[in-house]
Amino acid sequence: MPSVAVKLYSVFFKLLLKHRLQSLISISPDHAPPDSFGVSTRSDESVAAANPSFADGVATKDIHIDPMTSLTVRIFLPESALSPTEPRSDRRHSLTPPLNHSSSPAAPEPRRNSYGSENLEPYRGYAPSPKRSSRKLPVMLQFHGGGWVSGGSDSAANDFFCRRIAKVCDVIVLAVGYRLAPENRYPAAFEDGVKVLHWLGKQANLADCCKSLGNNNRRVNGVELKKVNVQGHIVDAFGASMVEPWLAAHADPSRCVLLGVSCGGNIADYVARKAVEAGKLLDPVKVVAQVLMYPFFIGNNPTQSEIKLANSYFYDKPVSVLAWKLFLPEKEFDFDHPAANPLAHNRSGPPLKLMPPTLTVVAEHDWMRDRAIAYAEELRKVNVDSPVLEYKDAVHEFATLDMLLKTPQAQACAEDIAIWVKKYISLRGHEFSY
After folding, report:
1. Is residue 62 part of a domain?
2. Which domain holds residue 43?
3. Domains in the chain: how many in total?
4. Cα(62)–Cα(159) distance, rounded to whole angstroms?
5. How far is CA 18 from its chain centroid?
6. CATH code for the domain of 138
7. Catalytic annotation on 262?
8. What's a Pfam family in this record (predicted)?
9. How many CB atoms lie within 10 A of CB 230?
């Protein structure tokens, strides 16, 4: 059984979550027009600032990838992405070089902002150098939990979890800050997940274009592109960079993994289906596997765990039903909705046999566990590699909730995920393959 501390924390957690959900329901009537821009994080939640230097072995940065919405991604770049042959003492040179690029050893000129001030400190974060060899890492798209209405790619708990995953899996993590409900109901969060996948492909194609562009200008879709020799970036006519340098230098999108936490698992599964449908249209992005951590599945016909564990810890069934009421439009509210039940009769998309290898993580004291296990069993029936990792005495979000992040069980879960994922992202002959 969970510890007394976990049980007490669960009681307060459910009270606060229920109050938040009921407040959102009262101020967000179903007939209210959607806010297309939306929000991707709540102002009353604890967030972790991005740090572009390798603090704790991982550098992070935030990118707002869609000017029409609040969709963002936080990039987690592990220090292992630096060339393994690069001496440790020389890694400081991976930071942005001095502003004075002449051969003279004189001090660099002072940095000025648009107002002429000379008091700004130079950028101290990591910036890849085109002259230094770099290591390509797989990319993992991570979708956070929070019952559709809370959480965020920059939340303190999600930041800690993504740092851990980036290091143990040796991958670049893109934590997706999708639009939250009820400001944006279904299918906004699902569409945001697909949009990030396409953005990753666009970044890979622009990086290839950057290599072939040389010093010539080119017009793409009516936009003049030109290459700046100093950093090797593609910029438009206004000087705005169009290539994300960390991804251009270190990302291998042909080894892409999806990881969804709680309701993020529902998003990951949807994105995987869309990736299968798109096929080669996503090139060079290839989704090679997905990880569903205690997915937020539900259905009209209750399973045994939904009956016996309905009042379980943290996200119990009554609270989760409120979350679904805030996420699904009133006219579409149905527990057998394709977003809620992966085995619903009205599920669209490719057949299950075409789905990527799927690792499912479940907790003993989670009322949603049976439906997640049933989905994994259906995948195995059509010869999809879909193991289930079940953790005893564990609760929903046992590896991602702020209070439980530093438990041995949470660390073990991350390591178990790494062992399985590396079967599909390792380069045989170049990296250790499990």
Report:
1. yes
2. 4-26+37-81+131-217+224-425
3. 1
4. 11
5. 26
6. 3.40.50.1820
7. yes
8. Abhydrolase_3
9. 9
**Contact of 249 with 136, CB cutoff 8 Å:** no
The sign one gets for the Cα dihedral 285, 287, 291, 295 is: positive
Catalytic residue among 155, 366, 370, 386: 366
- Determine how many CB atoms are found less than 10 A away from the CB of residue 229: 9
Q: CA distances (Å), 252 to each of 94, 199, 207, 226, 256, in order?
A: 20, 14, 11, 24, 8
- Choose the catalytic residue: 40, 70, 150, 262: 262
Q: In Å, what is the CA distance from 213 to each residue of 134, 226, 352?
A: 20, 8, 41
Question: Is position 366 annotated as part of the catalytic site?
Answer: yes
pLDDT, one tens digit for every residue, the chain (434 residues): 778 888 888 888 888 888 888 888 877 655 555 677 999 988 888 999 999 999 899 999 999 999 999 999 999 999 999 865 443 444 444 444 443 444 444 444 544 444 444 555 666 788 887 667 778 999 999 999 999 999 999 999 999 999 999 999 999 999 999 999 999 999 999 999 999 999 999 999 888 877 666 545 555 445 555 554 444 455 545 444 578 999 999 999 999 999 999 999 999 999 999 999 999 999 999 999 999 999 999 999 999 999 999 888 888 898 899 999 999 998 999 999 999 999 988 778 899 999 999 999 999 999 999 999 999 999 999 999 999 999 999 999 999 999 999 999 999 999 999 999 999 998 764 444 33
Buried/exposed code over 8-30 (b: 16+ C-beta within 10 A; e: otherwise): ebbeebbeebeebbeebeeebee
**Which of 81, 110, 14 lies closest to 317, judged by CA?**
14
105: in domain: no
Alpha-helix runs per DSSP H in 257-331: 263-278, 304-308, 317-327
Give the residue among 31, 25, 86 at the shortest CA–CA distance from 54: 86
Q: What letter does residue 239 receive in the DSSP assignment?
A: -
78 phi, psi to nearest 5 deg: -70, 150
Any residues with CB less than 8 A from the CB of 356 and at least 6 apart, and which? 258, 272, 275, 276, 287, 288, 289, 290, 384
User: So what's the pLDDT on residue 281?
Assistant: 92
Instruction: Give 368's strand partners.
Output: none
Q: Which residues contact 61 (CB under 8 A, 6 or more apart)?
A: 50, 52, 74, 75, 125, 246
**Which pTM was predicted?**
0.85
Tokens of 391: 């953790």
In a domain, 91, yes or no: no
Q: Which of 144, 250, 337, 396 is catalytic?
A: 396
Q: How would you list the strands of the sheet with 233-235, edge to edge? A: 218-220, 223-228, 233-235
* Local structure of 368: helix, strand or coil: coil
